[in-house]
Amino acid sequence: MPRDPTSSTSPMNHDDGLATHATAVRELLLDAERQARALLLDVDHTAAAGLVRSWPAAVAAAAELWGHTGDEPTSGVAGQLLARVAEVAVSLEADLATARWPGNGTGDDRMRAIATNLTRAGELIEGNAGEAHLFSQQNSDAVRTRAAHTLYIATHAVGVALKRDGRERAFDRAFDPNRAKPRRTPGAGGRSRYEVGPGVRWADRLGAAERALGAHLRSSSPIRAQEGEQQVAAGLPRLREALAHFDIQAHRTLAATPTAGNLVLATRTEGMFLGAALTLTRAAGETGHLSQADLDPARLEHTLTHAGEAWSDLASRWSDLMPKGARVDPALAAAANQLREACRDLTHDTHNKLAPATVITHRADLTEALPVLGHYVDAATELAEATRPALRTPGLEGPARAINRRLTRDVESGRIPDIPNDLRAELVKLAGPENGQALVPEQVLTGLHVATSRAGRTSAAAANSIAAEGRSPAYREQPRALLRPEPAILAAGDLPARAQPGR
Amino acid sequence: MSKTTTPDLSWQQPLGDIVCLLQLAADHLWEAADAAGVDSPLHSLGLGSFLAASQASELLPANGEVPGPSPSESTDPLKILEAAEQLTRQLDPDLAGASDLGIAVTDLLREARRSAA
Predict the structure, then answer these.
(1) SS3 of A182, please?
(2) pTM to 2 decimal places
(3) CB pairs under 8 A between A and B
């Protein structure tokens, strides 16, 4: 007798039904992730309050889902990390009831949709709890990871919204004529005033949950997840710390692994910093801080612009020699990222454009910032020299196509005389369809030496223009002399010893 | 006879493409930044793209292949970043670091969209 295909006792139909449930769970989780991605892409400050209100429900839904996948929620390292996230959500929800901000109001539809998907996926798993083969250990692990991944993205999005909310409030304060000029707030944990808003304490707590989720997904330990919790400094203290860290790390990395990738990263980061220094000193000029320090705005503008251009030129020349997919030292990448964020915090507005001087003044005391900038623009002079040993690497190679392009550009701009035809022909041959590697010709090495010297020389000039002997007590407190002799364009022995005919 | 299995390396393909695209976006952004001036916000965006490329490179095995950019690839950094962001969605979150990369690239794309607005 044929089986009834609709019968629930039909093994084939039963399996089909389970497969449908498994597919539905997967689709629900993928849809939740899509919504979390969309949220992160579009999130802005207006959503901050609603997102904070809705976040605990999303965590609760994820925690239930984890519970249904069979694991004890608190077992093992992963369980501890996820339990920590759940604890944060429970305590945050309890505080929401009495907090003045975000107060009563609606939640965020996108976060609610994520929570709904996680809840429905959990219910489907629970409804098939007896079907061990449907949700095997492997499947259960995948479900937990996908849910944690989605919650990680969504939690990060709430943090972004809270940060932007704080910056918008600071922007409003900066243009409020009834407000006095900001003063330092003792005991604010190193935060500048612009970050001290109602969302800050929520951001700190969500940050702990985000770190725990990240550690879970990286299979890190709970101890590692707590790292970084002390990184509360913002504004000028954050910039000072990031500059010090980058300066030390760049020297370490370039001494140990002077690859083209690391050189591009170090030189581009320095160029970005000089751009930030220009923005900050310009803001200082517009708000009267430069005249107080008896500094010449035109000279500062001129020297910092030249230094920034010199570093960009040096960086683009190292980019020529970088193979595709080149790796960089993760420690240098972390330091560069820290510096990028610290600069952006001071110089960018919420639309990723340069912030008006009035806003920048509210973010940092520019009188205090000037000697810090002077100190690290001066340090750039030494960093330029730290890039030079890489030019003496025996058999230094680079992609033939980029080398040929650089030579053409330098010839066209009159920086070098025309190059021999046999060198050009060899480079074209090496480039071929595969863009092979070529030994770096002498003309390109010389160009790099000159660019290095120019980066050092212009940085020294910029540092000297910021340094004002005895003009301000803040300058006198600097531990090292800012005034230094400007290096010559090319010192003896700077040029490569290797000199091959035509190269 | 013991059963042999071929390791699944399919995840390396989008990762290699992501590295390539992020590096390409960084190159275009820096070129535009150099033309725009020392204080251009594009310097920071280019650095962000380069850092995301290096983050993606770290997930590849030492001999992992990074393709060159396709000749038909857009030269608009925003479009390139959008393509990279789409590819990060193909990464399995079980791959340690994939979630961080997804967030980094999405943050970068949001930053780029606001810059372009």
Answers:
(1) coil
(2) 0.86
(3) 143
Chain B nearest CA to A492, separation (Å): 30
Q: Rounded to an integer, what distance in angstroms lies between the CA atom of residue A412 and that of residue A422?
A: 18
Secondary structure of residue A249 in the 3-state scheme = helix
Q: How far is CA A465 from CA A46, A244, A247, A274, A329, in A?
A: 42, 21, 21, 13, 33
**Cα end-to-end span (Å), chain A:** 87
Residue listed under structure tokens 């996948």: A69
- Is residue A399 within 8 A of residue A437, CB to CB? The reply is yes
- Burial grade of B35 (CB within 10 A; 0-12, 13-18, 19 or more): exposed
**Length of chain B as a residue count:** 117
Residue whose structure tokens are 């209100």: A53
For residue range A50-94, what is the model confidence (pLDDT) as tens digits?
Answer: 999 999 999 999 999 988 887 555 566 667 888 899 999 999 999
| Mutate: best of A85, A149, A458, partner B, most B CBs <10 A | A149
**A262 token code pair:** 């690391």
- Cα Rg for chain A, rounded, in angstroms? 29
Q: What is the CA radius of gyration of chain B?
A: 16
Residues in contact with A146: Cβ distance below 8 Å, sequence separation at least 6, in sequence order: A29, A30, A33, B93
B75-103 pLDDT tens trace: 899 999 999 999 999 999 989 999 999 99
